[in-house]
Design goal:
eight-stranded mixed sheet, globular, 324 residues, three-stranded antiparallel sheet, binds S-adenosylmethionine
Length: 324
Amino acid sequence: MAEASITFHDLHPTADDLASDVLAGFSRPQKSIPPKYFYDAEGSRLFDAITELPEYYPTRTEMAMLRKYADEIAQKAGTGHLLVEPGSGSCGKARILFEGLQPCAYIPMDISGDHLRVAAEAVAADYPWLEVHAACTDFTRLMTLPPSSPEGRRLAFFPGSSIGNFDPDRAVGFLRMIAEMVGPGGQLLIGVDLKKERRILEAAYNDAQGVTAAFNLNLLTRINRELGADFDLAQWRHRAFYNQAEGRIEMHLVSRVDQLVRLAGHTFAFAEGETIHTENSYKYSVEEFRDVAARAGFTTDTVWTDDDNLFSLHLLQTEVTNEE
Ligand SMILES: C[S@@+](CC[C@H](N)C(=O)[O-])C[C@H]1O[C@@H](n2cnc3c(N)ncnc32)[C@H](O)[C@@H]1O
């Protein structure tokens, strides 16, 4: 049996990045923190717990679709690509595709370094025929592949509706980065959460066990630890709701009282009821997302949806250029 093969490239963002992003976010009228900072080791653990919750339909729906359509995806996308997954998390969804796609290498990329290392090593151990080149990186800044990656046709995989964390114009910009990374004739398989009844959407982000609340509040624990801030977690609560006009779930941390918080040499005042906006999760119709993809230079090959119209999977490709 072939040896498991893995390389690991660490381009991890630093505490300075966290400090400058939080200070910039807190200087706006609506205070905010970029959602990428959810994912320290505890945040990644809590996200995995969220994916198991009864209310959180996206993960189980998308995984069932990947299982159902794995052969069809391989037929349409072809085999032997370099499979690149930005925001790979626990790599559970890519595992469903390996047998069918037979990639020449797998490139998981994630901002959560230790979580990525464990997940990538587990993939390498379970699929000894597969080269794994992991990169700990912030995909909003850098989409370059690890230098050790082999040459090959590129298929990007971006499941989990993480595209919903960008507003639609920024989603176009991010997809353009992917289009550039996969190159002419390259492909993208992307999971996109669909617009649906408010009741289903809001339940998914307000679970009865409070795991999503813990995930949201963990941001403050992280900022206390890494930036020496003094957030009192008892004085904050989780809030998530569907903003119909914008077509997005919004997550906020709500101040329970008037309070002052010290952070990196600054003092911030929060009024009772004031919020820190921590995440958007935009929802799309199939047609709306097709339009976003087209604006980024992708044509749609195939769209799959589940029977309940909860979630969509889009296989996209960039134009093949004829270089004379
Ligand atoms: C919503 S989870 C999805 C995980 C997995 N792809 C799935 O579908 O279950 C988002 C993942 O992207 C990673 N992530 C978030 N922002 C990132 C960024 N700016 N750069 C790299 N990884 C990021 C997180 O650490 C996390 O693993």
